[in-house]
Automatic annotation (TrEMBL):
Protein name: Serine aminopeptidase S33 domain-containing protein
Origin species: Stephania japonica
SUPFAM superfamilies: alpha/beta-Hydrolases
A Pfam family recorded for this sequence: Hydrolase_4
Start and end residues of each Serine aminopeptidase S33 domain: 142-402
Length: 423
């Protein structure tokens, strides 16, 4: 079934028995009580003396009320976002609200940037949202930067400000929303195959690079968190297509001390084949780990991670509740397993990374370990590679640091790009 359609779980309810549980007609062996609790995040209640007892293993998270907007706007924001048409309606309703937010990426965004939005049908029959940010008319383009967003995110919120800053420096910036995220079609938060997600990115940017303004200039990849994993895999598949890669707190390796036990991984892998779209993956509250700026941290409301301290994932603070189309529910089983597989695959091939490389990481990041970026820097075969660790910096160095630090990070990015472009 197309992933943009309804969840399979309601059609195949999870029913417990004395010997196991059923998903539709499929009987599974019952895991231990400890494992059940770790898989669901809550204890399972059994009704004694019954052959079958229904159990709720995952609930849709209630969306937090957005202060400062009308009841009508809150009603719009609270609707089910599983399908793309709903996400597009919600985003459209909140565009003006987002543009007025008191954050340096919004209030100090350069003016005069030319923007274009469009949809393209990919080879899987899904409509993919694409966006371009170009310098003021008459400014000669130095190069193009293609952005890969992180898990749960969209290129239409924080990245709007990031793209405008880079575009104002003379670059054409392009991004897409991955299938199942943002304004692109696909079941919200669902990654059936990480390789297909990578192939979709390659497919879309083969088209973008044929645009007239992209001809004859260097092409760069920019990936943040999970988007860093996408960027690395895009480079590994098409190494000659890119003139450099910028990675911001990339998800490219899971440290052994934070991986779940093999037995839990085995159970999750099995369940992901039976209930791939179910929101059952373990999660960790990483609420204080992404934003260092006390003012921005004060705005923090909720952030989800998986597998105790597995990288990324959805970062939401009080300002980011206005990122109304971000995926903030529990991670779907297949999605979690695909992300784990992707990092394992990258780790095996890390020495094949050969492009000019800039890796940026907050030295105090507890979401994606800075040691992973050091590992990437040391193992990559790139002859031109730079690692920058920002003292006391947290995970979101482009969004969650003090304004002065955010400015320094952008200066580092633009300086690196400029030094690799022919003027």
């Amino acid at each position: 079934m197309d992933p943009s359609r309804a969840l399979s779980a309601p059609h195949k309810p999870l029913v417990h028995t004395r010997s196991g549980f059923f998903a539709g007609e499929t009987e599974l062996r019952r895991p231990s009580l400890a494992l059940r609790c770790r898989l669901t995040g809550t204890p399972t209640v059994w009704a004694p003396g019954t052959r079958r007892s229904a159990a709720i293993v995952a609930k849709r998270k209630a969306k937090k009320r957005i202060e400062g907007v009308s009841e009508e706007m809150n009603s719009i924001a609270s609707q089910n976002l599983d399908l793309a048409p709903a996400r597009r309606r919600v985003r459209s309703a909140f565009v003006e609200v987002q543009n007025r937010l008191d954050h340096v990426l919004f209030k100090s965004a350069p003016s005069g940037i030319r923007m274009e939005e469009w949809f393209e049908m990919n080879s899987k029959g899904l409509e993919i949202f694409c966006k371009a940010w170009l310098p003021r008319k008459g400014v000669r383009l130095k190069g193009i930067v293609c952005f890969c967003h992180g898990y749960g995110d969209t290129c239409t919120f924080f990245f709007e400000g990031i793209a405008k800053i880079i575009a104002a420096s003379g670059y054409g910036v392009y991004s897409i929303d991955h299938p199942g995220f943002g304004l692109s079609e696909g079941l919200h938060g669902y990654i059936p195959s990480f390789d297909e997600l990578v192939d979709n990115f390659i497919e879309r940017f083969q088209v973008i690079k044929e645009r007239s303004e992209a001809s004859g200039v260097p092409h760069f990849l920019l990936g943040q968190s999970m988007g860093g994993a996408v960027a690395i895999k895009v480079h590994l598949k098409r190494p000659s297509d890119w003139d450099g890669i910028i990675l911001v707190a990339p998800m490219c390796k899971i440290a052994e001390n934070v991986k779940p036990p093999p037995a839990v991984l085995k159970a999750l892998a099995f369940l992901s084949n039976v209930l791939p779209k179910a929101k059952l993956f373990p999660e960790t509250d990483l609420a204080d780990l992404a934003f260092r700026d006390p003012r921005k941290k004060k705005m923090l409301v909720d952030m989800e991670g998986i597998l105790w301290t597995m990288p990324d994932f959805t970062v939401l603070h009080e300002m980011a509740v206005y990122n109304v189309i971000a995926y903030s529910d529990r991670m779907r089983l297949r999605t979690g397993m695909e992300l784990l597989k992707a990092t394992d695959d990258i780790e095996r091939q890390i020495e094949m990374v050969s492009s000019p490389l800039l890796v940026l990481h907050g030295a105090a990041d507890k979401v994606t370990d800075p040691a992973v970026s050091k590992f990437l820097y040391e193992k990559a075969s790139s002859k031109d590679k730079t690692l920058k660790l920002y003292p006391e910096g947290y995970h979101c160095i482009l969004e969650g640091e003090p304004d002065e630090r955010i400015s320094i990070v952008f200066d580092d990015i633009v300086s690196w790009l400029d030094s690799r472009c022919i003027h």
